[in-house]
Each structure stands twice: as C-alpha cells, then as structure tokens.
Design goal:
This is DUF1971 domain-containing protein. The chain has about 90 residues and is mainly β. It has one domain: Jelly Rolls (Sandwich), CATH 2.60.120. The chain has one helix and six strands.
C-alpha cells in the first residue's frame, strides 16, 4: 500500500465502529472523493480491506492494529468484517 503523502493533512475522523455498528455503506464498493485520502485504523481485532477499483491492481489486506489501510483518492474499495473489531477511518486532503 502507498503511504499517505507527507504534504496531505488530517482533517477529520469517523466515529469508532465495531462489527455491529459499521455502516453498511462501508461494506459495499465505494470511493473517497477527488483529492481525499483515507486511513482505516484498526484499534482491536481485524478487518479485511479489498481494493476493487477497475483502474488499479486488485488487492486484499487483513488490517490489524499493526497494519492500517491506505485508501487513495477515488479508489473503489470495501471492508469485510471477519470477526470482532474496533476501527475508525481518518481522512486527509
């Protein structure tokens, strides 16, 4: 995964989600806006992050507290709940 560029700044974070409270929109293919990067930050447990963008190499990552997931601007992706988890999404631009 590409790192978030140093020139990009954090501007907001989602609420903390768990396996029961995750919005269904995050479980379906969706994308960030133009110029917006995101980081899926797992606080406890794990969640699968799937990049499904037709314009990018498809990839699957198991995110844990030791591995956050970087979402590029306009990159189509979704999350899959694989068990108990607590996570948030940080947004950058």
């Amino acid at each position: 995964m590409k790192p978030i560029p140093a020139a990009i700044r954090h501007y907001r974070s989602s609420p903390e989600f768990n396996q029961d409270s995750v919005p269904t929109a995050l479980l379906r293919d969706h994308a960030t806006a133009d110029g917006v990067w995101a980081s899926v930050v797992v606080l406890e447990g794990s969640v699968r992050y799937a990049v499904t963008d037709a314009g990018a190499e498809r990839a699957d990552y198991l995110l844990t507290p030791a591995l956050s997931g970087t979402v590029l601007p306009r990159q189509v992706h979704h999350l899959e709940i694989v068990g108990p988890v607590r996570f948030r999404v940080d947004f950058y631009r």
